[in-house]
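Service request form, structural biology core

Requester: graduate student, group of Dr. S.
Request type: structure prediction, single chain
Budget code: on file
Notes: please return the result as C-alpha coordinates.

Sequence provided:
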Amino acid sequence: MNSVSHELRSPLTRIGLSVALLRDGPVAENQDIFIRLERDIGRIDSLIGQLLTLSRLESGLGTGERIEVNLSQLVQEVAADGNFEAQMSGKSVTLQINDCIVIDHADPAS
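Core staff response, request fulfilled:
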Protein backbone atom coordinates (compact mmCIF):
# COMPACT_ATOMS: atom_id res chain seq x y z
CA MET A 1 0.00 0.00 0.00
CA ASN A 2 2.86 2.35 0.87
CA SER A 3 4.55 1.83 -2.48
CA VAL A 4 1.29 2.12 -4.40
CA SER A 5 0.43 5.39 -2.71
CA HIS A 6 3.83 6.88 -3.46
CA GLU A 7 3.85 5.69 -7.06
CA LEU A 8 0.40 7.13 -7.76
CA ARG A 9 0.99 10.53 -6.17
CA SER A 10 3.82 11.60 -8.50
CA PRO A 11 1.91 10.92 -11.72
CA LEU A 12 -1.11 12.71 -10.26
CA THR A 13 1.04 15.77 -9.71
CA ARG A 14 2.18 15.66 -13.31
CA ILE A 15 -1.41 15.24 -14.51
CA GLY A 16 -2.33 18.33 -12.54
CA LEU A 17 0.49 20.26 -14.16
CA SER A 18 -0.60 19.03 -17.58
CA VAL A 19 -4.09 20.33 -16.92
CA ALA A 20 -2.61 23.70 -15.97
CA LEU A 21 -0.60 23.77 -19.19
CA LEU A 22 -3.67 22.88 -21.23
CA ARG A 23 -5.66 25.63 -19.54
CA ASP A 24 -3.18 28.22 -20.79
CA GLY A 25 -3.25 26.73 -24.29
CA PRO A 26 -5.71 27.10 -27.15
CA VAL A 27 -8.38 24.91 -25.53
CA ALA A 28 -9.12 27.43 -22.78
CA GLU A 29 -12.80 27.45 -23.80
CA ASN A 30 -13.21 24.06 -22.04
CA GLN A 31 -12.90 25.52 -18.54
CA ASP A 32 -15.66 23.30 -17.07
CA ILE A 33 -13.74 20.16 -18.06
CA PHE A 34 -10.55 21.48 -16.50
CA ILE A 35 -12.33 22.41 -13.28
CA ARG A 36 -13.79 18.89 -13.05
CA LEU A 37 -10.41 17.29 -13.78
CA GLU A 38 -8.67 19.34 -11.11
CA ARG A 39 -11.40 18.54 -8.56
CA ASP A 40 -11.16 14.81 -9.33
CA ILE A 41 -7.38 14.88 -9.12
CA GLY A 42 -7.68 16.57 -5.73
CA ARG A 43 -10.04 13.87 -4.51
CA ILE A 44 -7.75 11.08 -5.69
CA ASP A 45 -4.75 12.79 -4.11
CA SER A 46 -6.63 13.06 -0.82
CA LEU A 47 -7.59 9.38 -0.91
CA ILE A 48 -4.01 8.38 -1.65
CA GLY A 49 -2.86 10.47 1.30
CA GLN A 50 -5.32 8.65 3.52
CA LEU A 51 -4.11 5.27 2.22
CA LEU A 52 -0.51 6.27 2.85
CA THR A 53 -1.33 7.36 6.40
CA LEU A 54 -3.17 4.10 7.05
CA SER A 55 -0.27 2.09 5.64
CA ARG A 56 2.25 3.90 7.84
CA LEU A 57 0.10 3.43 10.93
CA GLU A 58 -0.34 -0.28 10.25
CA SER A 59 3.29 -1.05 9.46
CA GLY A 60 5.36 1.66 11.16
CA LEU A 61 7.10 4.54 9.41
CA GLY A 62 9.36 2.44 7.21
CA THR A 63 9.01 -0.89 5.48
CA GLY A 64 12.02 -2.32 7.25
CA GLU A 65 13.15 -3.73 3.91
CA ARG A 66 16.80 -2.95 3.23
CA ILE A 67 18.16 -3.46 -0.27
CA GLU A 68 20.62 -1.93 -2.72
CA VAL A 69 19.20 1.36 -4.06
CA ASN A 70 20.57 3.14 -7.14
CA LEU A 71 20.66 6.74 -5.93
CA SER A 72 21.86 8.04 -9.33
CA GLN A 73 18.79 6.64 -11.06
CA LEU A 74 16.49 8.06 -8.40
CA VAL A 75 18.03 11.53 -8.76
CA GLN A 76 17.72 11.33 -12.56
CA GLU A 77 14.00 10.56 -12.23
CA VAL A 78 13.51 13.47 -9.82
CA ALA A 79 15.40 15.81 -12.18
CA ALA A 80 13.24 14.69 -15.13
CA ASP A 81 10.08 15.41 -13.11
CA GLY A 82 11.53 18.76 -12.02
CA ASN A 83 12.29 19.63 -15.62
CA PHE A 84 8.69 18.90 -16.61
CA GLU A 85 7.41 21.15 -13.82
CA ALA A 86 9.97 23.90 -14.58
CA GLN A 87 8.82 24.10 -18.20
CA MET A 88 5.61 25.76 -16.97
CA SER A 89 7.75 28.80 -16.05
CA GLY A 90 9.91 28.68 -19.16
CA LYS A 91 12.78 27.17 -17.17
CA SER A 92 14.57 23.83 -17.33
CA VAL A 93 16.33 21.43 -15.01
CA THR A 94 19.39 19.53 -16.18
CA LEU A 95 21.51 16.98 -14.41
CA GLN A 96 24.96 15.64 -15.11
CA ILE A 97 26.01 12.53 -13.21
CA ASN A 98 29.57 11.33 -13.60
CA ASP A 99 29.44 8.21 -11.44
CA CYS A 100 26.76 5.75 -10.40
CA ILE A 101 25.99 6.04 -6.69
CA VAL A 102 24.52 2.98 -5.02
CA ILE A 103 23.47 2.75 -1.39
CA ASP A 104 23.97 -0.82 -0.18
CA HIS A 105 21.55 -1.01 2.71
CA ALA A 106 18.62 1.38 2.15
CA ASP A 107 14.86 1.42 2.53
CA PRO A 108 13.52 1.90 -1.04
CA ALA A 109 10.22 3.34 0.23
CA SER A 110 11.82 6.18 2.21
